[in-house]
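Here we describe the complex-level prediction in full. Unlike the single-chain runs in Section 2.1, the two entities below were treated as one system.
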Amino acid sequence: MGYRSSVDIHTEWDIVAARQLGRNEAKKVGFGTVDQARITTAISELARNIYLYAGAGKIEIERLNENDLFGIAIIASDEGPGIPDVRKVMEDGYSTSGGLGAGMPGVKRLMDDFRVDTEKGKGTKITAVKWLR
Amino acid sequence: MNMRIPILKLKDILIVSLQWELDDQTAIQFQEDLLEKLHDTSARGVVIDLTPIDFIDSFIAKVLGDVISMSGLMGARVVITGIQPAVAITLIELGIRLENVMTALDLENGMDKLQHELEA
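The structure predicted for the assembly as a whole is:
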């Protein structure tokens, strides 16, 4: 496992802190400006989802190094209500917040790997990975 | 912690240069400040320059889109200038379309475009 750092999400200010951490880590891994923007934006969306739907949670950023591949993982976790229908939230244009947040399909497009683990009443864990090319 | 974004007036155009990463509260405050300033000055156009901004998430995009629509309701035209390549790429990948929004490469082009619109 690579170096991991995290920001607890409780307030809107924590969203700013999470994306600043993410951008700094992305720079350290060696991502260019476009990928830095993708990673920062993905973190912002995931952190806002935690703030809006779960109230509190955590954004972890992990530097990845597998064989000759370098990358970054964003792990967004909360102990909120969980996502009742994951397939539905992965559809473009689906929103329960009235247009706040571009939603999960957008985040998935920004990143290379995207995985959702959720259980009703227990919480949600989203792992999104970007690899350095 | 809440920083206000300065809004300058040049003849009948308001000029805004976003210089730092926007948090949610600053963005909402900016929306109100700009509309108040439009009301107070009777400006007919607004240029919002985003040159130093290196990412825009869906929330900031929504605030920007809303402020453009709201300014339109008040009779003012808005032009957005200086969107960086990385910002354009991530906005489209994220699925955000700022449709019917006047844009220009930089502040100078934006001023020209707006002036042309206002004279038309």
